[in-house]
Amino acid sequence: MRSFIKVFLIIFVPIGILLSVTWSITDKLILEAAQKELAHEMASKAEILKGYDLKYTFDQNLHDKFSHISEKSKLRITIIRKDGFVVDDSYYTPEQVSEMENHANRPEVLEAFATGTGSVIRRSTTAEKRMYYFASKYDENLIVRVSYPMDYIESLRAGMLKQNLTVYFILMIMIALLTIYLARRINRPIQQLSIIADKIEAGESKIYFPSFRDKTITKLVGVIYRIYNSMNMKAKQLEQEKLKLNHIFSILDEGIILLDAKNNVKHFNNTAIENLETELKTDKNILQQTNNMDFLSFFSEIVPLFEDRRLQKEYKGRIYEIYIRVFDNEKLIVFFDITERAEYENFKTELIGNITHELKTPLSMIMGYSETIKNDPDMDKKFHDKFINIIYNSSNRLNILINDILQLHKLEMQKDSIAVEEPTIAGELAEEIRSYYVDRPKDVTFKAEGLDEIYINREHILSILTNLVDNAMKYSTGDHIHLDILKDKDMISINVADHGPVIPTNEKDRIFERFYTMDKAKNQNDTGTGLGLSIVKHIATLYNGEARVVSNDKGGNTFIIKLREKFPLSDIS
Amino acid sequence: MTTFRHEKEYVQLKGMLAEMATLASSMVSDAIKSLVDRDTELAEKVIEKDELLDSMDVEIDEHCIRMLALYEPKAVDLRYIITATRIIIDLERVGDHCVSICREVLKLNAQPQLKPYIDLPKMAHDAIKMINESLQAFFDGDTKLAFDVIKRDSKIDELDDQVTRELLTYSTENAKTFHIVISLMNISRRLERIADHATNVAEMVYYMVEGKIIRHTYIDEIEEED
User: Fold this and answer.
1) Interchain contact A102–B (C-beta under 8 A)
2) Could you tell me which residues come within 8 angstroms of residue A393 by beta carbon, excluding any fewer than 6 positions away?
3) What is the pLDDT of residues A439-484, one digit of tens each?
4) What is the number of domains present in chain A?
5) DSSP string, chain B
6) How many angstroms separate the CA of residue B122 from the nearest CA in chain A?
7) Mean pLDDT of chain A
8) What are the tens digits of pLDDT across the range A171-206?
């Protein structure tokens, strides 16, 4: 509205002023012209009057004529002598004329006697009106003076003023209306454009673009529309790119955090939150996100870095590999949980160390004793035999160890899906176990009730049984070992119970690890490879089962091995 | 509550303190691990780490002084920075104790093991927990947690007494093991001292939050006041 008023005023005020000035000038000019006309008229009338035969004294005849003219035309005719005596005056009766005062000092009279003509506008003392006087010399002693009341000019002026004012006002109103119309026409599209611009700025999604009559405005709106559209498209593209990026970020296994130059969080993904176990907020300093000490410690080492770096750090018990990329104003932190990898590597190194250690012990025995024999060929037969025996036993142990390692390796390599083509007969199995442990110091009770065919590889089940019974033989202080095989649907359960001593709870899981022996000092003289239980566990895993140890009511341990039978592929239907 | 919490220096201080605390507690755990696993290499590493801890102590101290000069903090802010300067002293002392423990470990590793270690790892575990929790209490301004830490100090003291008693019986059984017993007693004492430093930190946290100094006061009295 304000701009509308502005436009209106800009157009209207100058036109108004111009109009007023023009009007006043023309008014003045017209009046001047009228006055001149009057003067001219008077002069010519005076000339006409000079045509009469004028007398120095009053003449009734002339007086009548002049009075007649005055009655018809309001023209006052005065004849004045040089001495100022008024000879005749058409406005008055002869009596009045004779009593009229001396006119010698009238300016027009003086002027007429001096230059021939004289004119003046003044108030008549006799007629008491503003009059226009014109005096013209008739001869040396007489002048004819004509005068006309200014009524004419004044009424002319009044009439003109009235008419002109009417015209003036009509004109002004017309101009005003025109200006309003123009102002509206100019202002409205601008107003609309401004509204559109405001809406675009506010980011409104639906904006109406009206059509305009004005070509320039239409063009302008067209340009704005196109810019707006392309802007929208760009925004959409950006949004999509962002979504895509976010999507990629969210499925990454790496935690990602992007920091700006002031270490405020710019971006992060879900993995980052999961790994850090801390809610993150964008546009907040990374060290102000939480008061958690692990978090603060984790990032306070990363934050001051200003060059690309790769480091490993522990956070809440997990090990992370952290890559730091530094850009101009941003810092990208990528962290990857390598706990398992690190554990595996640790485990591998330990395993290789263990294997070599285990291999080395018998090997050094073999080497040592064979060297002794080699260096002393005349050795006493008794020692010789003893040494040979040791060498043989050590080779045997080495053989068993290598066999175990190979078996374990084979089991590890085995794919998940195995199928047992030929069932193991439970009776045969029992017979074999019994004959195997017949001369041992401890009794082995074998129970396999209600069992006939077991769809578990014979080698595998034998390996489990012998390993567990051997262990019980070695470590149990009791005299009995109880061996049970039960079947529940396709789940085979092998239980081996001894009479103790009980394995401590915190070691119950660890004994299934490779080369794990509960007490190193105790095991030194035994022949175990340290791989037996590991093999058992692997077989159990192969048959989708489990291997665990629990304490039993006999004061000992019961190893429970569960195996799921694997039927031949053709029988599955 | 604090007026300069948005300042860069403040955030930096927080981070550095956390880093130092983590380093100190990792030193304690590594020291005790080197004892249990008889890992001489690890013990030497811990001794080396103390230098890093010392340099952090100096760095944080300078940082605090700069903040005091720069912001002329009042009330809570002032107490915050003062507490920080006190905490780093305690943390630095924890590092020194770790070095002492590791020196003993180096001596012990040259000897056969006297007995399996059960109480010492337990003490170390408790002490580490106390350090971490006292610092967490500092960051959170959590007086409840701070009290919790202070209360647990007596438990460690008891453990120390128990270990000392037990070791004394060993030494009376076999005079040859005397120097081993002394080393182990020293380690036990050091762990007890580490717990004391954690307690100091917790007491400072109470001071920071409440503005009251509770050192040399019995904890029950303070709780009664509350």
Assistant:
1) no
2) none
3) 888 888 888 777 788 888 888 888 888 888 888 888 888 888 888 8
4) 5
5) --TTTTSHHHHHHHHHHHHHHHHHHHHHHHHHHHHHTT-HHHHHHHHHHHHHHHHHHHHHHHHHHHHHHHH---HHHHHHHHHHHHHHHHHHHHHHHHHHHHHHHHHHHTS---S--SHHHHHHHHHHHHHHHHHHHHHHT-HHHHHHHHHHHHHHHHHHHHHHHHHHHHHHH-GGGHHHHHHHHHHHHHHHHHHHHHHHHHHHHHHHHH----TTS-HHHHHHH-
6) 15
7) 83
8) 889 888 988 888 887 777 778 888 888 888 887 777
Are both A559 and A448 inside the same structural domain? yes
Q: Would you list the DSSP string of B147-189?
A: HHHHHHHHHHHHHHHHHHHHHHHHHHH-GGGHHHHHHHHHHHH
DSSP class of A90: T
- Binary contact (B15, A300; C-beta < 8 A): yes
Q: Is A200 within a domain?
A: no
Which one, of A407, A400, A411, A360, lies nearest residue A543 by Cα?
Answer: A411
A432 and A514 inside one domain: yes
Contact A297 B14 (CB under 8 A): no
Q: What is the mean pLDDT of residues B185-192?
A: 90
Nearest CA to CA, how far is A326 from chain B (Å)? 19
| Cβ contacts of A278 on chain B, cutoff 8 Å | none
Residue A12, SS3 per DSSP: helix
Tens-digit pLDDT profile for residues A264-307: 888 888 888 888 888 888 888 888 788 787 888 888 888 877 88
Cα–Cα distance for residue pair A371/A360, rounded to 1 Å: 16
Distances, alpha carbon A362 to alpha carbons A311, A406, A527, in Å:
42, 17, 10
pLDDT the model gives residue B97 = 92
Residues of chain B in contact with residue A288, where contact means CB-CB under 8 angstroms, are 5, 11
Would you state the structure tokens that stand for residue A299, as one six-digit string? Answer: 């990032």
Residues 6+ away with beta carbon under 8 Å from B45: B30
Tell me the pLDDT band of A73, cut-offs 50, 70 and 90: confident
Domain holding A356, by residue range, is: 342-406
Question: Residue A557 maps to which CATH number?
Answer: 3.30.565.10
Note the residue count of chain B.
Answer: 226
Residues A451 and A518 in one domain: yes
Contact A293 B18 (CB under 8 A): yes
Mean pLDDT along residues A221-240: 88
pLDDT tens track for B166-181: 888 887 887 778 888 8
Q: Which position has the token pair 């692997």?
A: A538
d(CA B93, CA B88): 8
Find the chain B residues whose C-beta atoms sit closer than 8 A to any C-beta of A. 5, 8, 11-12, 14-19, 21-22, 132, 135-136, 139-140
ipTM: 0.73
- Per-residue pLDDT, A565: 84
One domain for residues A467 and A530: yes
A350 interface with B at CB cutoff 8 Å? no
Q: Which domains does chain B have, with CATH numbers?
A: 8-225 (1.20.58.220)
Reply yes or no on whether the pLDDT at A516 is more than 60.
yes
Domain boundary among A406, A431, A454: A406
- Residue A486 and residue A562 in one domain: yes
Residue A447 CB partners (closer than 8 Å, separation 6+): A482, A483, A484, A485
Query: Which 3 state secondary structure label does DSSP give A335?
Result: strand
Task: Please check whether residue A156 touches B, CB under 8 A.
Answer: no
| CA dist., res. A481 & res. A465, Å (int) | 11
Count how many Cα atoms sit within 13 Å of the Cα of residue B136 in the half-sphere of its side chain.
Answer: 16
Q: Are residues A357 and A333 in the same domain?
A: no
Looking at the complex, report in whole angstroms how far the Cα of residue A294 sits from the nearest Cα belonging to chain B.
Answer: 7
What is the Cα–Cα distance from B44 to A206, expressed in whole angstroms? 71
